[in-house]
Each structure stands twice: as structure tokens, then as C-alpha cells.
Amino acid sequence: MHMSRGVAAAIGAVALAAVVTTAGPATAATRTTESGPGWHWVHEAWQPAPQQDLVLPAARYCGSFDLRATAVSQDVRSKVLSRWDNGTPKDTYYAGPLIEKMTNVTTGRSKDYDMGGDALESDTSAGALRTYQTFGPVGVAMPIGESKGLPSGDYVLDGYHLIQFNADGTRDVKVALGPALDVCAELG
Hints:
Strand content: over 45%
Helix content: 10-25%
Low-confidence stretches: 1-32
Mean pLDDT: 85
Number of helices: 2
């Protein structure tokens, strides 16, 4: 990958973020503005997207310990930008402050992390995650044996990152323009 493509992707991502966050409210709940092959753009209202507490199992992520994520402070919202013609979301944008306490369940060691960056999730027409673009800081888990571009673990990605989710369940980091803090290593 050439740096110029990465810079272009980052500029495009920032431009998309500016459009999403500055767009005014729609006159209707959903308004179609354009379409593509099998999908269409929509203007839908921002919706609350609270982050649920979860435990990442050791066997899948950190290796030697379970990692608990607990939302300490949050006001994450989501906005569907486009839908497939069958009605499922194609592109959903997430934004808003989020502080999560990450805890090594074995030792009790914990730390609060700012994960309040923005993210763009793109899904298939069947609803499966296709790509995840982060405009950090954003938390992303990379499973053991199923990840390319980053070792397995749980990360706080800062800057711009593009992660592709493949049909076989693997994840590929396609673009990494910024640091990736390994929470498993920090709390292990």
C-alpha cells in the first residue's frame, strides 16, 4: 500500500465524518436521496447506541486472562447512512464520548480508556459485518488465530484504521494510520 492511498483514505474518512456530523435533521424519519446497485442513501435520525458491558474470553483474545469491559461514561449515538434495498443497514456511523474500564479478571488490574472516537460500520445485505473504519480512539478486539495486521488482543486504535471482516471469520487490518495500544499487554 502506498502512503498516498492511506492519506487519501484518511482525508475521505474525515470528509465523511464532517458530512455526517454537520447534516441537519431530516424532515421525515427516513428520506432517500440517491441510490446505488441494491442500496440507497438515507437520512435517519441519530439514535442512542449504548455500549453493553462484556467479557472477552481468554481463549479468544488475551490468552491467559478474561478481559472485562465496563462502560464508565458514555453518550454514543449511531446514524444509519445507507440501507440495502431489503431494509438492512449498509453503512452506520457511530460517534460520541465513551470511557471504558478494562479489567484483567484474573488479577483485578484495571484502567479507564478513552474510546470515544468515531467509527463507520459497513455491513453486507445479510447483516454481516464487512468493514469497520475507526477514527480513534476506538476499541477493537482481534481474535487469536483469526487476525491479520495486528496480533490477537484487545486494542485502542487511534488515528485512522480500516478493518475488513472476511466471510471465513478472519479480520484483516487493511489501513493503519496511527497507534494501536494493546490493552491485553498493558493489563497482563
